[in-house]
Amino acid sequence: MKMVRLNNGVEIPILGFGTYQITDPEQAETAVQEAIRAGYRHIDTAQSYMNEEAVGRGIAKSGVARKELFITTKIWVENVSYEGVLSSFERSLTRLGLDYIDLLLIHQPYSDVYGAWRAMEELQVQGKIRAIGVSNFAVDQAVDLAEFNTVTPQVNQIEINPFQQQTKNIAALKAEGIMPEAWAPFAEGKNDIFHNPILVKIGEKYGKSVAQVITRWLLEQGIIVLAKSVKPERMQENLDVFDFELTDADKEKIATLNEGESQFFSHADPEMIRWMASRKLEI
Q1: Which residue intervals define the domain NADP-dependent oxidoreductase in the entry (predicted)?
Q2: What is the distance, to the nearest Å, from the Cα of residue 30 to the centroid of all Cα atoms in its chain?
């Protein structure tokens, strides 16, 4: 697996297995085992996914040594404060059955992010977290966090897909030393993405699926990619992307698909902020 180096020297597998919306415990546990069997070494979960226990069981039953795996989880909004991070992080560790986390993220850019960040910095110094970062932060929010604290975020996990390409934001994050990580690289199937004529035609040229073309497009930008599937054959397919390269012409065609807006919702929408603030998960 290809690795990329974060701004603190920690290496992270460039391809990760996402577990969002895998809520059935047995399915989540099995999916993690199958993903690791397929070759994934980077597993991504979150407090709000409500599957940390199942993910932890899958990790434990995989038979792969802990040091060979890179595990990410995220702090949900209700726990985004100094004390909230310290207490909820310990609960996440217990649910996952781990004694350290490779990457801990603030899941959403709301509530007391500065207090939360100070707690995360302390946990990193203590060796309980190898890397710390954010998710869904605008570039200015990530830079603000960096400038008024000790540690610059190592990662910003954001929506990146052919319909929301975020080219300027990706460049800006990299200029700050913050690694972009793509969630929803396949836009969760929106706009019939798996049958998009441009992506299908590019894939046919290389004998690859649309998912493989999208993954390769992101990898060639130096972006960490999170892909999710509960089907072992798809897991393997999503990893099989290192034997071809896109041409400049391919990339120019993909660029025409950019709509320049989220395929899901705006993080600047007051109603969405209020909804997230009200979503108490007791985690």
Answers
A1: 15-258
A2: 20
CATH number of 3-278: 3.20.20.100
How far is 215 from 210, CA to CA, in rounded Å?
9
Q: Are 183 and 206 in contact (CB under 8 A)?
A: no
Per the DSSP assignment, residues forming a β-bridge with 135 are: 157
**What pLDDT score was predicted for residue 283?**
84
Clarify whether 49 is annotated catalytic: yes
Q: State residue 282's pLDDT score.
A: 80
Catalytic: which of 20, 49, 82, 110?
49
What does the pLDDT read at residue 124?
Answer: 98
Digit-coded pLDDT (tens) for 5-56: 999 999 999 999 999 999 999 999 999 999 999 999 999 999 999 999 999 9
CB neighbour list of residue 198: distance below 8 Å, 6 or more residues apart:
253, 254, 256, 257
Low-confidence ranges of the chain (pLDDT < 50): none
107 known ligand binder: yes
- Distance between CA 69 and CA 41 in Å, rounded? 5
Q: Domain residue spans in the chain?
A: 3-278
Residue 50: count of CB within 10 angstroms of its CB: 17
